[in-house]
Design a protein that fits this description.
three-stranded antiparallel beta sheet, single chain, six-stranded mixed beta sheet, alpha/beta, about 190 residues
Amino acid sequence: SKVTPEVKAKTAEKIKKEADTEAQIKLIASEKIIADTKAKADNEIKGELKVHFIDVGQADSILIQQNGQNMLIDAGNNEDDKLVVEYLKKQGVQKIDILIGTHLDEDHIGGLDTVIKTFNIGEIYMPKTIKPTATFKDVVTAITNKQMKVSVPKVGEAFKLGNSECTILAPNETDYADANNYSIVTKLK
């Protein structure tokens, strides 16, 4: 039997269609692999550690986030309370898993009372000392009103934040002449 030009053309067209179909299948498979890889990468990015230094002037306020957990270290001065709360809300914070008041000066714990009143709070860490100021009393009242307790960290104690581990490095003594030396120091790994 003789192959006519018409049969050759139809065969070539059929081979081209099959090749196009195979190319489309490969493209779809490649796109699926890329999409799956991106989805996996997106899931891994959820473990990304974010550190926000909240602009409270000369005061201190740091938000650390990982895997949907939040740690707030200090909350600025008394007049920074609304700024800190609004910043936290803009970051999607609904719960503060770990709240640390590093020491009792107003430029560190000034906004803590409003933060405690506004958000669900997990654990609160503060140094084992008191300060006879209205700011300190406001923080204690906010904690008491939520029927919470303060944890006094011990050097070497560790706790988790997402995939990270925080270890308490200070304070190392029980009695200091300078109140700043009572500051809680943590190492985040």
